[in-house]
């Protein structure tokens, strides 16, 4: 699979490369990345043919957006697709008073949730200022799921559907952005958002992976019916599909339970039989679905980025996917590359 190959989004006409650049790591998540390394990552991605970049105000409290803008500023603007998000506004505050967790050495801005119409409009304007780029292609409403808000989720979701969504629909109609949608951790929330509003796309962090295919029940068929494109993040289920079933492996940001470890061991056994790296299977599997044009794995170094590129290029025989289905390790109705 060529990571630089492009796929067209049916509703918006945008074209994104099969491999995108997930810019959360250059927001200094968990540990810092230097300015030089951040710039090197973006240049290496560009040199490899990657032409889709995803960022957000949340990532490093604006740092990821600032670095994306700096790294992409002098490339032809019509040659790449850029997405960012609304739902959090940043306000200047002394660095010592800010809780950056899980970001390290972010920009000196405090974050607050705001899914209102005015908040979304302000967020897009602020993002354009931080990045100093001509326009944003895709705007997602960020984190309106239970994973983020818990008991407050219904109220936050409702505000987003009546406030931020109205703002993004207006911006799309005016040509300020080309595509709009939601960026969430739960497909059920994404499905409800698609039912409620005329969205073009969804950024789904995990929840459709080599380990999880419940989204095939209703969400992904709805995307196909609506011609809505799905950007897939979190394809390693936060770690275990990259590391394998090793001690301490993470599954959806927590230690993997034994049933998950055992399932991954069985998948790894099939991988060894066919000489297919587990990471390659994880990254390429999701791209078999017709609603998913791009996968955006993160990278903290040029070496990791190069590994992701080679992982996409790995040839995987159709017999490998057939064997996973035969052993009931992936769903029978799961489309495969």
Automatic annotation (TrEMBL):
Annotated SUPFAM superfamilies: NAD(P)-linked oxidoreductase
InterPro entries: AKR, NAD(P)_OxRdtase_dom_sf, NADP_OxRdtase_dom
Domain of life: Bacteria
Domain (NADP-dependent oxidoreductase) ranges: 19-325
Protein name (record): D-threo-aldose 1-dehydrogenase
Lineage, opening ranks: Bacteria, Pseudomonadati, Pseudomonadota, Betaproteobacteria, Burkholderiales
């Amino acid at each position: 699979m060529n990571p630089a190959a492009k796929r067209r989004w049916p509703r918006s006409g945008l074209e994104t490369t099969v491999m995108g650049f997930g810019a959360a790591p250059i927001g200094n998540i968990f540990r810092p990345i230097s300015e030089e390394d951040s710039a090197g990552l973006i240049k290496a991605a560009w040199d490899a043919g990657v032409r889709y970049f995803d960022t957000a105000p949340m990532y490093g409290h604006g740092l990821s957006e600032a670095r994306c803008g700096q790294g992409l500023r002098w490339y032809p603007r019509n040659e790449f697709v850029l997405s960012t998000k609304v739902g959090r506004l940043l306000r200047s505050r002394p660095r010592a008073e800010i809780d950056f967790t899980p970001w390290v050495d972010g920009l000196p801005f405090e974050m607050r949730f705001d899914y209102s119409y005015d908040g979304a409009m302000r967020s897009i304007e602020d993002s354009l200022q931080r990045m100093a780029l001509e326009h944003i292609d895709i705007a997602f409403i960020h984190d309106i799921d239970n994973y983020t808000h818990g008991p407050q989720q219904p109220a936050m979701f409702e505000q987003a559907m009546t406030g931020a969504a109205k703002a993004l629909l207006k911006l799309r109609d005016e040509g300020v952005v080309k595509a709009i949608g939601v960026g969430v951790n739960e497909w059920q929330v994404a499905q409800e958002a698609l039912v409620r509003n005329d969205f073009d796309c969804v950024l789904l962090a995990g929840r459709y992976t080599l380990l999880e295919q419940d989204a095939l029940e209703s969400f992904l068929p709805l995307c196909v019916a609506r011609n809505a494109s799905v950007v897939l993040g979190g394809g390693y289920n936060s770690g275990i599909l990259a590391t394998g079933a090793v001690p301490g492996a993470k599954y959806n940001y927590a230690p993997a339970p034994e049933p998950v470890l055992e399932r991954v061991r069985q998948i790894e056994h099939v991988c060894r039989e066919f000489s297919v790296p587990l990471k390659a299977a994880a990254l390429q599997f999701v791209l078999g679905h017709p609603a998913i044009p791009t996968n955006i794995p993160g990278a903290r170094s040029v070496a990791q980025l190069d590994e992701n590129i080679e992982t996409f290029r790995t040839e995987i025989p159709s017999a490998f996917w057939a064997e996973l289905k035969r052993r009931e390790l992936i769903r029978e109705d799961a489309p495969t590359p």
